[in-house]
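# nightly structure sweep
# worker-07 picked up a monomer target from the shared queue
# config: single-sequence mode, recycle default, output format = structure tokens
# input follows
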Amino acid sequence: MTEAERQTGRRLERAILELLERRGATATICPSDAARAVYGGDDDGWRALMEPARRAAGRLVAAGEVEITQGGRPVEPTRARGPIRIRRAR
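# output follows
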């Protein structure tokens, strides 16, 4: 992993936590919310940050900060296939 990739990962982690902080205690976000926040452009360049955002969420799961859910139920980040949501750890 390059230094630029590490920095982007840290920015995505912060964005996930900040977005959740601004929402209600039981709210969830999509990884795309964090990708858009970090990308900051008006086009769809944020899409390139989707996998890095999912990996950032996985690191936050490992740190006990958040949970990744599918269908409202927590799932292991490595087992999640398809759309996911991110919420504060319960």
